[in-house]
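Q: What structure does this chain adopt?
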Amino acid sequence: MLWSQPTGGPMEVTSPAFIPNPRPPRLRHSALELSRVFLEMGTSAALAPLLKTLPRGDGHTIMTIPGFMGADGSTSRLRKFLNGRGYNAIPWGLGRNASEVRSQNIDDFLAHRSQMEETIAARVEQEFIASGRKLTLIGWSLGGLYAVALAHRYPQWIRQVITLGTPYGDPRGTALYSVMGRLYDNDIDELALARWVQHTYRSGKLRVPVLALYSESDGIVGAGIAKCQGDPRYVTNVAVLASHVGFPFNPLVFAVVANHLVEPHERWAICRSRHLGSLVSVQPSY
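A:
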């Protein structure tokens, strides 16, 4: 197996700790984001033979949710890979993520986020009714926040959630905050930042497995805010070698995702693989 699931652990986290003002990504990682994406895309051909030997899927539906300002084209390569492995990978079909937001503060953006989550939920319900099977949600960055929030609210429709470079913690731990913060004239509102973080975990206990992939060298989302908090029986955080923009193009990410989509007894021992083990690290949950 890729990892073992503990049989017990600490009490489930229902109100995650808010750690104010963590460090944003290192400048050199941010500066190298775009160049690293092309390198990651280029390694796909080299790893193609290895990817073809990954466990085959069972045909269930997987919905991909793009990151901030991303559209379905940004996740098309991931869907093509998943369809090739035997899944029914579909786009979210809702245009460019958050392109219409005209917020004056964090709470305005949070209201938009809540509305978007309900719109996605309606789509998920439709797909569940059509197929009769629960869906997997794969969310990139902001899309991962939507997905985990929905997992808390609608476990009857969702089989599992996988997030890619998602900023779970204080938004100031992202490289974008200094830019987006200029849109707001008001002073920093610590309580509003805490509400933003806690929103992901509200509305019910988590009973859906969550795999959170993050990167220590992510140039957009700092590693300090990139781990999902929750009961370790359901939440697994895994560090992979990837850029932020490269997550939905990175063949290493593809391998870890495909390995996690199958039943535990069918998974590769990727962390002990001589090919990939040094590039993947399972981290403790909270």
